[in-house]
Design a protein that fits this description.
Blueprint lengths: L27 H15 L10 H15 L8 H11 L16 H9 L11 H7 L8 H9 L7 H17 L2 E10 L6 E8 L3 H30 L28 E5 L7 E2 L5 H7 L24 H16 L1 E3 L3 E2 L2 H10 L7 E2 L8 H6 L4 E3 L24 H13 L24 E5 L10 E5 L5 E6 L2 E8 L35 H36 L1
Parallel strand pairs: 1-12
Antiparallel strand pairs: 1-2, 2-3, 3-4, 5-8, 6-7, 9-10, 10-11, 11-12
Helix pairs in contact: 2-3
């Protein structure tokens, strides 16, 4: 192409003093001012990083020209990131360098107290306590479960081991066991199952009962005063709510053990409250994920009577009742107490270790579920392990109330659950899924295999047996398996309207003729009564004149 002609678009581009922006900024001074404003804008520093775009682009171009990468346009974003990282500088405005606090360092600081010995703790005291310590050997249990790929990391198990040691040194505990770990959305729960020494827990319950009795007494006095003051009150509802089923005493039934929880090893242990039948019954109807905060509310329908600490305690009771198992023959009933408990009708609730226990082989324990038994009482539909008649105190009330309450217990049938030490072979399956799955820890070396049982009803519950050693553990979300999706309970039906009848029907308005007839009849009745009164007055006057 030869030189551009004046009528062509490219004419004059290469002429000296010509620029494509002459039409836009003809004045050189205005052009320089626009350049200075643009450079000032590029030199404006960021309020977050302190960098400016002008220096950043200059450094990018310098890096590209120095390194000359292939396809620089495709990696310009990565080059920009590299330039920014190269210009990163730590704060140096203090006398000492500020080190970054890593999450691992924070966790180590929290668990530092677990590795410190108590004041005055010597080797002699440790030797004396080794034989009688309630502290379980968590690492040994973790070793057996590890054979089947179950458990936590060794570091976390050892930290839990130290946390349990700290709990045993603070609380008057007779027995202690690592129950398991329940997962949460924000934090998890590490759970310890303990039993107090005799008399330690009973004192606390007595104080609570005294407070409750005192509160009831004050309420009765106030009610009597209010009844005297308010004589004309509107009619009250005749609805009588169902009686409140009392919770089982500490050391029995669902409250046989006390549970302590913490979110992480090193954090303080928190004692969970006792569980009530109402909480267990409601926990069966809902399914909620744990948050990791004990004071978190449980928003559900039906409404749960308590917060997350109560819901956690109810789930622990349900899981323990269904998954705590042991080899058959390891426990036995006491001969003296067995006859007395059978006569009472409540079933046996205590057992003891069998000193003559002969362990079965791993093959026998894996092949048949009848070689395993439940050693924790099952929970009835009532929410208790031992059924209680809610109307058993009717003799102290009036005769009328007696007759009414004597009719109601006829409808109530006593609930009887499976007795203690019931074989697992009697557990009901879930549709086509068996309740338990038994397998050895390894098929390659069967001589040293461990019998492992997994609960299909409560996913996350496991048990192992090797010789005379066995244990149970739980790692999961605290939910029961259901083959179908969870469907919340429907709200109760709307209350029906009051039945209509002639005694409550509104009267119709009278017509004009009926009103006039009513007025005339009333006037006639008034006139008749006045005449009768006048005649009586005349008769009285005549009698007085005759007397005179």
């Amino acid at each position: 192409h030869g030189p551009y002609q004046p009528h062509e678009p490219g004419y004059g581009l290469y002429q000296p003093g010509h620029s494509p922006y002459d039409d836009q900024i003809p004045d050189p001074e205005s052009r320089m001012l626009a350049i200075q404003n643009a450079k000032a804008y590029l030199l404006k520093s960021s309020t977050t990083s302190g960098l400016n775009l002008y220096d950043h682009l200059a450094n990018m171009l310098t890096k590209i020209l120095d390194e000359q990468p292939t396809n620089a346009v495709d990696i310009i974003e990565n080059i920009s990131k590299d330039v920014k990282w190269a210009q990163f500088q730590k704060k140096m405005d203090t006398l000492r360098d500020e080190h970054e606090i890593l999450p691992t360092f924070e966790a180590a600081e929290k668990r530092k107290a677990l590795f410190l010995k108590a004041n005055g703790e010597g080797d002699e005291e440790l030797e004396e306590e080794i034989g009688e310590t309630p502290l379980p050997n968590v690492m040994e249990t973790a070793f057996y479960f590890e054979q089947a790929g179950i458990g936590l990391s060794k570091d976390e198990m050892y930290h839990i081991f130290l946390a349990l040691k700290k709990l045993v040194s603070v609380q008057p505990i007779q027995t202690c066991r690592f129950w398991g770990k329940i997962l949460g959305l924000e934090m998890n729960y590490i759970i310890a199952e303990v039993q107090y020494h005799e008399g330690e827990e009973e004192e606390e319950t007595e104080e609570e009962e005294v407070i409750e009795e005192g509160g009831k007494g004050m309420g009765e006095v106030e009610d009597e005063g209010e009844d005297k003051e308010k004589e004309d009150e509107p009619p009250k509802s005749t609805y009588k709510p169902p009686p409140v089923i009392p919770k089982e005493e500490n050391g029995t039934g669902a409250n046989k053990y006390v549970y302590f929880v913490c979110n992480e090893p090193g954090k303080p242990w928190v004692k969970l409250p006792s569980v009530t039948p109402a909480q267990i019954v409601c926990a069966r109807k809902i399914k909620k994920f744990f948050t990791g905060r004990l004071d978190a509310p449980v928003v559900s329908f039906p409404p749960f009577p308590g917060n997350e600490a109560n819901y956690l305690r109810a789930q622990i009771a349900r899981i323990s009742a269904g998954t705590q198992i042991s080899p058959i023959g390891f426990y036995q009933f006491a001969e003296e107490e067995g006859d007395e408990e059978e006569e009472g009708g409540g079933g046996r609730d205590t057992y003891e270790e069998n000193p003559d226990f002969q362990p079965l082989s791993v093959v026998e324990m894996v092949d048949s579920l009848s070689t395993w038994v439940h050693h924790v009482q099952s929970i009835l539909k009532q929410g208790r392990c031992v059924w209680l008649n809610p109307f058993q105190k009717s003799e102290e009330e009036e005769e009328d109330e007696k007759e009414e309450k004597e009719e109601e217990p006829d409808e109530l049938q006593q609930e009887i659950g499976p007795p203690l030490l019931t074989p697992l072979s009697e557990d009901e399956g879930i549709q086509s899924i068996p309740a338990w799955t038994a397998q050895p820890s390894t098929n390659l070396i069967p001589q040293y295999a461990v019998a492992i049982l997994q609960s299909n009803r409560w996913p996350g519950a496991y048990a192992f047996a090797s010789g005379k050693k066995f244990d149970n553990i739980y790692f999961g979300w605290g939910h029961k398996y259901s083959p179908e999706n969870h469907t919340p309970a429907l709200p109760p039906p709307v209350q029906a309207e009051y039945p209509s009848g002639p005694e409550i029907a509104e009267t119709r308005d009278p017509t004009l003729e009926e009103e006039l007839a009513f007025k005339a009849a009333r006037e006639e009745a008034l006139a008749a009564t006045e005449e009768e009164e006048d005649e009586e007055d005349y008769a009285e006057d005549d009698e007085e004149e005759d007397d005179d």
